[in-house]
Specification:
533 residues; Rossmann fold; 2 domains; 9-stranded mixed β-sheet; 7-stranded parallel β-sheet; 19 helices; 23 strands; 36% helix; globular; binds glutamine
């Protein structure tokens, strides 16, 4: 008998930034707790095929999946909550969809018909969603429609989801906002009423309404929403401000959301187990200790650009029962001599120099790395941060005074960091980097080996430059240890300093594969060492 598969569709009303992705991921985690295989899919209306060319300033971090897909940072949320590895197929953007349909049309795939949004495009969406469910043997396919109801961009996705409801058992979940008017302290439900009417005009009646709010819904507000939006009171769920996003599954579950969803979907409930999760959340809420980690970066104005690093520190903190405060460091100020590196890094128990592109602020980062090396402060360099650690070491220890990365100075006299050979010919911007999961060979007897406990690990990459093989010998002779590299090649991927308690640079992005229930070992050790300082 074929598996009975169910679908949950999460849509957002009124405005962006309500945490729809986090709410959807929390729903997924609850149902996972019931022993169900939950497979998420996200729709994004924009016409980019993927997020590779998007500026993190505008759009937040570009998240990289194991298969090399560059996607929206919401995919990070799903992986962190559901502890799963997503693939390209879990992300459907407008660009990807239109490209598929147009290519198919060119091949004569629509048999002479005029190709229309309805039914052709919507049919492709439904087919895609069902196929992902089938291939991954999902119990539940959890679909998040990006954007807000009423946008032109996601209209065809909503129409497809309406049609899906005719074919399959679907639970529709609407995330909305209930503001409180300051003067009278009254919760206002009218925006939600209008939003639900708008959704209904598209043929979708929500079964659940999740209310973002500053304070819990009062009985009267709940009654009104129930009455005017046609949703039973118990299916109106509070989504209050939280101390940590990882609390949300518990908060929803206390309101009975899991059981209600199962009942709507006519699914039997199995075991419910969130014990380990709950313990970690407790550690985040009431930590025993506290440390401060300095993070340098040029996107410090937009903290969303470093979401995965922030979360990886939360995960590693939970494992060490310690709160990790973050001090953001604008390195351009060090560069322009408006601030002294000593002052800027004061109070930091550890320093992270994260990934980045281009020259702005790079010299300031090199200064911070030198400081961390000198003062014995735990240092973790991620991708660009690792490359700059090589530049710093080359200049200040190996006597290569003109060492630089050719990304920063094209004509560097001593190009210790240079383009990967396969990157030198490429001009097309999309998908030109070394991207996605790759194996890393870890050298025995090193700190890296102590941390990983194995000789082969898989990590995620997103870079164009590498340690120039011509300088490896000189750098090693100067005391820099390369403790990880690409198998059967001389692409260096981990560096460390044996006489420092934690000075580690990695060419990859360990932050991308850290999850609450599987904190990344590098981050765990980094936090642990910073704690001991
Ligand atoms: N800009 C560097 C490169 O392309 C580092 C990239 C990164 O930090 N993700 O290699």
């Amino acid at each position: 008998m074929p598996k009975e598969r169910r679908f949950i569709v999460v849509v957002g009303s009124l405005m962006s930034g309500l945490g729809k992705g986090i709410a959807a991921a929390s729903i997924g985690r609850i149902l996972q707790g019931y022993g169900l295989n939950v497979v998420p899919i996200k729709f994004d209306g924009y016409l980019n095929v993927d997020c590779g060319t998007m500026n993190p300033f505008r759009h937040g971090e570009v998240f990289v999946l194991d298969d090399g897909t560059e996607c929206d940072m919401d995919f990070g949320t799903y992986e962190r909550f559901l502890n799963c590895d997503l693939k390209n197929k879990n992300s459907i953007t407008g660009g990807k969809l239109f490209r598929y349909v147009i290519d198919k049309e060119r091949r004569g795939g629509y048999l002479g018909y005029d190709v229309q949004i309805v039914p052709h495009l919507t049919k492709e969406i439904i087919k895609w969603v069902k196929k992902v469910g089938e291939d991954d043997d999902a119990d539940i396919v959890l679909i998040e429609v990006g954007g807000t109801v009423g946008d032109l961009e996601n209209g065809y996705f909503l129409e497809a989801m309406r049609q899906l409801g005719l074919q399959e058992r679907v639970a529709y979940v609407q995330v909305t906002y209930v503001p409180t008017m300051n003067v009278v302290g009254e919760q206002k439900t009218k925006p939600t009423q209008h939003a639900t009417r708008l959704l209904a005009s598209l043929g979708i009646q929500p079964h659940f309404i999740i209310c973002r709010e500053n304070e819990k819904l009062k009985a009267e507000a709940r009654k009104k929403i129930s009455m005017f939006c046609n949703v039973p009171e118990e299916a109106i769920i509070d989504d209050p401000d939280v101390q940590t996003i990882y609390e949300l599954p518990e908060i929803f579950e206390k309101q009975g959301l899991g059981k209600l969803l199962l009942s709507r979907l006519k699914m039997k409930s199995r075991k419910q187990d969130m014990k380990e999760w709950g313990k970690l959340v407790d550690n985040i809420r009431t930590p025993k200790e506290e440390i401060t980690i300095g993070i340098t970066g040029k996107y410090t104005a937009l903290k969303d650009s470093y979401v995965s690093i922030k979360e990886a520190l939360v995960h590693a903190g939970a494992r060490n029962d310690c709160k990790v405060n973050i001090k953001w460091i604008e390195t351009t100020e060090i560069e322009e001599k408006k601030a002294k590196v000593d002052d800027v890094l004061k109070g930091c128990d550890g320093i992270i120099v994260p990934g980045g592109f281009g020259e702005r602020g790079a010299e300031g980062k090199v200064e911070c790395i030198r400081h961390a090396r000198y003062k014995g402060i735990p240092f973790l360099g991620l991708c660009f941060g690792m490359q700059l650690a090589v530049v710093e070491y080359a200049r200040n220890v190996c006597g290569l005074k003109d060492a630089n990365s050719t990304e920063i100075d094209e004509n560097a006299k001593q190009p210790v960091i240079d383009l990967l050979p396969e990157q030198k010919m490429i001009t097309d911007k999309g998908a030109t980097m070394r991207l996605g999961g790759q194996d890393v060979e870890v050298k025995k007897g090193t700190l890296a080996y102590e941390i990983y406990g194995k000789e082969s690990v898989r990590e995620r990459f997103r870079h164009r430059y590498e340690v120039n093989p011509e300088y490896i010998e000189q750098l090693e002779a100067g005391g820099l240890m390369f403790s990880g590299k690409a198998p059967k090649s001389n692409i260096m991927q981990i560096l460390e300093l044996p006489n420092h308690k934690f000075f580690v640079g990695v060419q990859f992005h360990p932050e991308l594969s850290s999850r609450l229930e599987r904190a990344h070992p590098l981050f765990i050790k980094f936090v642990e060492t910073s704690l001991k300082k």
